[in-house]
Amino acid sequence: DSPKASEASSAAPLGDQSARASIARVYDAALGGTDNFEIDRQVLEQVRKVAPEVNDLAWSNRRFLGRAVRFLTDQGGIRQFLDCGSGLPTADNTHQIARRIAPATRVVYVDNDPAVVAQSEALLADDELCHVVDADIFQPARVLGNETIRSHLDFSQPLALLQVGTLHHYAGDDGAELMRQYIDALPVGGFVVIAHFFDPQTDELSPLARRMEQVFLHSPMRSGVFRTRAQITGFLPGLDIVPPGPDRQGELELCDLWWPDGPRLRPLNQVQRCIAAAVGRKA
Ligand code: SAM
C-alpha cells in the first residue's frame, strides 16, 4: 500500500474534466504542456487574439517561481514550502528545484483542482517529505488548520508560502486581509512569494491589461484580475520586500526582471510587462 493511501482517498472523483475549462490546464497549455483539453486551448486562443504573446505570460511566471525557490533555499535557508495553487506537476516543481540544493526540503502542495490533486498524489506517492492537499487557498483558516499541513510543516521554523500565479484568480477586494492571515501564521524569518497579473498603468500598457482581463473574466475560466502596483504590494502587509536586483530597493518588479539568470539580450514584449512579482520577508 502507498504510505499516502488515506490522503489519496480524500481527492474528489475526477469525472469528466473535458467539459469545463480549468485554470491549471489553461496554464499548462500556455506552457506547451499536453495535460489540457480543447476547451482549455480555446480560452488561450481567445486571449491570444488580444495578446499574441500570452504564452510568455505563463513562462515569465513559471521561470520566476524557479528562481525564487532557488533563492529561498540557497540564500534564505528555507527547508519548508507551502505551495498554494501549485498547478499540474510539470518539469521543475518546487520540491525538485529546492532539493538540488537541500535534499531534505519538505513541500506541501495545495490546489483545489481535482486533476492537479490526483496527478500530484501520483507523483508524490512514495515521497515522505512532500504531500498534496485538496483545499481552497482563498480560505486561509482552513488551509492553516489542515491536518496534513500542520503535521508535515513546522510553523515555528522558517517556512516559505508561495502564491505564484494564484491571487489574480481571487476576485474579492479583501485579498490583503486574506494574506494577512497567512502572514500572521508564519514565523519571523518566513517568506511570502507572489506573482500576479499586473496592470502597469501606462497609457501604452493599461489597455492591453484590461483587454486580457476582459477575455479571462468572460471566458469559461471566469477569473484573472490585473491589479496595480499598490494593490499587489498590498498583498504583503507588514513584510520587508526583498530587493529584486542589485542596488535596488525592495519593491514589486516584473517577473522577468526579478534577479534574471543572465543579461537580457531581447527587449521584453508588452505581455511580459503585465506580470509582476515580489518576495517578502517577515522581520
Ligand atoms: N503556482 C503554479 C505556478 O506558478 O506555476 C501554478 C499556477 S496556475 C496559473 C494557478 C493554480 O491555482 C491552478 O492550479 C489552480 O487550480 C489553482 N487555484 C486557483 N484557485 C484556487 C483556489 N481557490 N484554491 C486552490 N487552488 C486554486
TrEMBL record:
One of its GO terms (biological process) is methylation. One of its GO terms (molecular function) is methyltransferase activity. InterPro entries: SAM-dependent_MTases_sf, SAM_dep_MeTrfase_SAV2177_type. The keyword Kinase does not apply. It holds the Pfam family Methyltransf_19. It comes from the Bacteria. Keywords: Methyltransferase, Transferase. This is S-adenosyl methyltransferase. It comes from Geodermatophilus amargosae.
